[in-house]
Design goal:
With about 130 residues, the chain is of the alpha+beta class. Helices cover about 15% and strands about 30% of the residues. The chain folds into 2 domains: about 100 residues, no CATH class; about 35 residues, no CATH class. It is built from 2 helices and 7 strands; from the N terminus they run H-E-E-E-E-E-E-E-H. A 7-stranded antiparallel sheet has the order 1-2-3-4-5-6-7, with helices on one face. Strand 1 and strand 2 form a beta hairpin. It is elongated and about 55 Å long. The N and C termini lie far apart (about 50 Å).
């Protein structure tokens, strides 16, 4: 019997990765049909196609009605892609390396007893879009 040589991230993970960084508005996951074949996997309906190769390190999102296309490359395993292209143009990546650190610090803050000043860890790290 042939051994399965391909790894797939699955329907939910593929949708989650695309949803976290895409500028294209995506439908609900239940409205998409999942398929896979020889190392490629995709979610699609009549309007949107989300394709993945190389176990999710490369993702293509297409809005067929609006002729929009996004390509995400270089997944780091923490929810970030190193390169992001919209209609062939390289754009700045939404998330930065410090975003997960900031989120951890913010989650630890007591919202009922906020300090008057920001903690030192949050002072100098800001993201401008």
């Amino acid at each position: 019997m042939a051994k399965n040589i391909y790894e797939y991230i699955g329907k939910k993970e593929l949708f989650r990765r695309a949803q976290n960084v895409s500028y294209i508005e995506l439908p609900k996951i239940k409205d998409l049909v999942y398929s896979k074949y020889e190392g490629c996997e995709w979610l699609e309906n009549e309007k949107i196609t989300i394709r993945s190769q190389a176990c999710g390190t490369w993702i293509l999102i297409q809005n067929r009605r609006e002729h929009e296309e996004e390509i995400l490359c270089g997944y780091d395993g923490e929810g970030n892609f190193s390169r992001h292209y919209v209609n062939g143009k390289n754009i700045a990546v939404k998330a930065d390396n410090k975003s997960s650190e900031r989120l951890k610090i913010l989650m630890e803050l007591d919202l009922d007893n906020l300090p008057e000043q920001l903690p030192d860890e949050l002072k100098g790290i800001r993201t401008v879009y």
